[in-house]
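At this stage, I put together a protein sequence along with its fold in token form, as given directly below:
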Amino acid sequence: MHTRMLSFLTDIEKALAADDPSPMDGSWENSRIINYHLGLARLTLGVKDATGKKVERGVILLQSYQLADGTPCLKAALSWTSSSASAVRAIYAKPDVNWTSEARRVAAEWMGGPPAAPAEPAALDSAHEVHPGVAAAV
């Protein structure tokens, strides 16, 4: 399963280049680090803009591991430079899984940008105040 990490990263890069062939009127300039022994990979996504300046855009981390039943799994953690938000997607090695399509989905999710921040809880009115003992525990 670990050998799939490199081809999965390549498929992600191809999908990004197909979706946005000229980002910021420049070109993609990505870097990879893969540790097969640990089953970890990192794809740092960057763009060289029209002026030649490199702009970091985000990171996709991959973790390859086996589930308790021995089934291989690949987990992708997505992050964006402009946001503290992140997203995680697990891909399970089922007989009918199409790894190229899964890589395209990961790339599309990353291209879609960070997930929206969760809504703030509504303020409590005086009729629904939290007991001071409960508030201290929270």
